[in-house]
Amino acid sequence: MPNQENHHQRPHIRKLLLKLIAMLVLFIACTLGIVAVMHNYSLKLIKTSQDELLPAIHDHQRAALNLERLERMGDLVVYGGSITLIRKNALAAQVLAFQPSFNFSPETKKTVQSAFELLREVRRTRQTLLSSQADRLSSIERENLIQLERTLQIRWGEYKQELFELQNKIISDATTLQTANMNQITSTNNLILVAASAGVSLLLLVIFFIGYNLYKHLITPIIEASSALTALEQRSGHAPLTEARYQELHTIRKAVNSLGETMTKLHNMATRDSLTGCVNRGYFMELAQQALSSAHRNKSALALVMLDVDHFKKVNDQYGHAVGDDTLKLATKWIRGMLPDDAFIGRLGGEEFALILPDYDAEQAVNLSDKIRLLIAKNSTDSGTIPAITVSLGVEVVKSATDEVDKLLSQADKALYQAKASGRNQVILYQITEETADAKAAESTVTPHTNTRLKSAQLDGDTSGMHVTATGVITNFPTETAKPQA
Amino acid sequence: MNTTTQFRVRFRTILLLLITLTLMAVSSFSAAQEVIRVGISTSFKPFNFIDKNGEISGYNADVARAICDKMQVRCEFVTMVFPKIIPALENNEIQLAASNLLKTPERLNKINFTDKYYRSTTSLMGKSENSFKDPEQLLQDPSSRIMATKSSTQWRYLQENSKAQLVSVNTQKEALQAMAEGKADYILLPTLFALNYLQQPENSHLDFIGLPINHPSLEGDVHMGLTKARPDLQKRANKAIRQLVDSGELRALIDKYFPFNVY
Fold this sequence. Notes:
The structure holds two protein chains of two kinds.
Chain A: H1 13-79, H2 83-97, H3 106-130, H4 139-233, H5 247-271, H6 281-298, E1 302-309, H7 312-319, H8 321-338, E2 344-349, E3 352-358, H9 362-382, E4 391-397, H10 405-421, E5 426-429, H11 439-445, E6 447-450, H12 452-458, H13 472-475
Parallel strand pairs in A: 4-5
Antiparallel strand pairs in A: 1-3, 1-4, 2-3, 5-6
Chain B: H1 2-32, E1 35-40, E2 43-44, E3 48-50, E4 56-57, H2 59-71, E5 74-79, H3 82-90, E6 96-102, H4 105-108, E7 112-120, E8 122-127, H5 135-140, E9 145-149, H6 153-161, E10 165-169, H7 172-180, E11 186-190, H8 191-199, E12 206-208, E13 220-226, H9 232-247, H10 249-257
Helix pairs in contact in B: 2-9
């Protein structure tokens, strides 16, 4: 490809691939980043629960157990039988009541310490009652002390209830903490799950986008180019390739398109007659063979017409070769205008042409041939640029499955010869083969169709001798049933 | 033949090499059994005392041993009076101190601390007949004679907050003796130590004086001390303590020495 054509530089495929890879990498990096952040968050949560929540839960549990011990110590102080036992437990209760392990809850701390105040009083009262000094007390003092002891015992019962409730509350607080902890962990897990599934969905989307881009910018142009090349190879036409965004595919597209154009040009040069645009003799024979094979295969009709311009040498001599060329050009143009789509015209040489008319039986072929004859005569007369001309045509149709192109051509040629011999400007249908009739008989069966218009124009007053009219072309037409081989 | 001989020679070399390496590994492993010197005092039942077999016993000693176990090091106890403990840590004479240390800013400059291994308060101890007196008042009374162990937080508190006559001692044993001899009226001391002492039947003439002293410098988390020369020990010791807490081993030790959970 010449570089000067690329006025604006297209991006290379490499760029597309790099873009897609970069996109994928970026996406994966983002996903990993998010995963890392969430992982970090979840680790932090675990650490928080290990460093704060778990110790807090343990603190609550320890406090609950210590409360229970306090109750037991209190019972021994309140109901214990010996001074030593009372003293020992009262001392322990004091230390426990002020132990910092109750500091986490001011309410607990307050209740425990006032419970201890009570125990202290119980201790004093009961120690006095149980000690040796008790004997020295008056009965009233003694009675008062016993009364006080009972009151304190009842109050201790109330305190115990309070301590018991406190204990329950601490345990349920611990449970709440634990539940909160669990909930937090669960919700983090859910969050991670949601993020992960979102990431996977997005990944699918990204993959889809990448696939779409590859398909649109890479695969589709390649498929198009490939089918265009196949079409070129089979010499059938192909639609021009669509624009490609990327440089390499654009290059392929341009190469395929220009290859197609070149091939069409070369094909035309090899198969067409440069003057008239008709197919040349060689290609005509090829196409005729194809049409004949197809007619044999489909058991369809096929007509072959030989056409020759009458007295063409005179045209050349009289008006010069340039006019002669123009004459041929125009004549073939008019003929082509009359041909159906699947028919074609070949220039066999000089002023001699041949038509292949698929699906035409003898009657249709003669009809068309006569229309051609009339049209050329009329158009050339009307035309100011070329002299008035006439043409002679010989028609032959496929009659047997063994008919070959050469034979059909020579028979049409014979009919043409007959038309020429019979005074030109007419259409002759070949009727009998040489093998079944002698030349005379053959001649007699060749039916001349003469349009008198041109002749009468040229050969004034000579029409009386002709027994055929324009309509007579058809009336004089021999029936199809007359098979030469029969 | 030649290749077989070669192979044999090579095989023997490899075998020798392997044996050497194994021996080296074993010897280096036994040599690598790290020794940690643990500073501890002996007259502080139930935290640290000499038991009837002559061995160092008590909560502090047991926790220190358990920590060393978890850290996979060998503990070597070094007995010394409490006032020597912090200087010994500073000199790296000992690496760990199992001596009921409360965290103070002053101490933080000198030594490192582990996480807590129990919690404590401070009480005033004296004659039973004074047990209903207000300790705060006694601390402000110039006629009362109050003792505390030298370089303890209690001693520092007295110096900063008390108007009483202050007497410093090197060990609790010394303090108890002085009180028995009538040389002082009160001792300001860790409550849990006092509790153990007071619970002994022979000490029923003594008692707590009022309630524990309510002051932030006298109560709270108690830590092991660590030398600053070995900053790596802090993380390892903390990990060991956490393992002891989580596994319940620490609670078992607490139950062995105290009537309730002191952690």
